[in-house]
Amino acid sequence: MMNECKTILGFPIFNGSREALRAELERRAGQVSGPLCLFYANSNLLQLCHGEAARFSEPGILIANDGVALNLAARLLTGTPFAANLNGTDFTPYLVRTSPIFRRVFLLGGQSGVAAGAAATLAASGVEVVGHADGYGDMTDEAALLARINGARPDVLLLALGNPRQEQWLLAHRDVLDVKLLVGVGALLDFLSGRVPRAPRWVQQLRCEWLYRLLGEPRRLLRRYTLEMGRFFWLCLRDRRGGEGA
Question: 190 lies in a domain?
Fold first, then answer.
């Protein structure tokens, strides 16, 4: 039985446990033609792609909630939070370590050396990494890159370009990628490689990892966590008022 989705700004966001999300990905992978896409929706992605929800709503795309802002939006718009925190930093490694069909992984993105460092970390945990490429020089020759990915025969492509660039790239190239699952992973490769430290476990449990990241990278993240998040909640409030007036 399919889990229900919560609709946030027109985007259907999966609502269930991490085990249920893994099962749903495995189920859909056998039903869609071409690669399945997994995107992690944070407030930044939804406000930047507002108005494109229909493009993200087809059966070959599954969206998981990522971040405190999505949970607050769910409470605001549906009355209840999401069943679980399915952020990509935790769920993606869990998926490729435990799924019987998403075993072979190719990593793409990040600065020079980041994908290689992340690949070493995943391999040390038992994941079968079949290739990696950085997000700069290795992406200049697109035809060669696509041939390299397909030649490695991965089950999963993890792409770290930041949103919405990574989601747009995957949607634009999914028809020429011979991969079961395409995942936009944001900062995951930076975390796995050690280039950017994750918040301590107690900070994660308090759901304050966003604040830890903001303090560590204020120049890059200040706008995201102020103006852009403010626009996200304004859009949510506008949707709520529209629904109440319908």
Answer: yes
User: Do 68 and 75 contact (CB within 8 A), yes or no?
Assistant: no
What is the count of structural domains for the chain?
1
pTM flag (> 0.85): yes
Looking at the DSSP bridge assignments, the partners of residue 11 are: 8
- Is 186 a domain residue? yes
Q: Please tell me what DSSP assigns to residue 30.
A: T
Q: 160 is in which domain, residue-wise?
A: 5-197
Closest residue by Cα to residue 122 from 97, 87, 142, 89: 97
Alpha carbons 11 and 30: distance in angstroms, whole number: 23
Residue 218 covered by a domain: no
Q: Are strands 11-14 and 5-8 parallel, antiparallel or unpaired?
A: antiparallel
Residue 129 sits in a domain whose CATH number is 3.40.50
How far apart CA 191 and CA 196 sit, in angstroms, is: 5
Tens-binned pLDDT, residue by residue, of the chain (246 aa): 346 899 999 999 999 999 999 999 999 998 888 999 999 999 999 999 988 898 898 889 999 999 899 999 999 999 999 999 999 999 999 999 999 999 999 999 999 999 999 999 999 999 999 999 998 888 889 999 999 999 999 999 999 999 999 999 999 999 999 999 999 999 999 999 999 988 888 988 888 888 888 888 888 888 888 888 889 999 999 988 876 543
* Contact status, residue 169 vs residue 161, Cβ threshold 8 Å: yes
The answer as to whether 205 is a domain residue is no
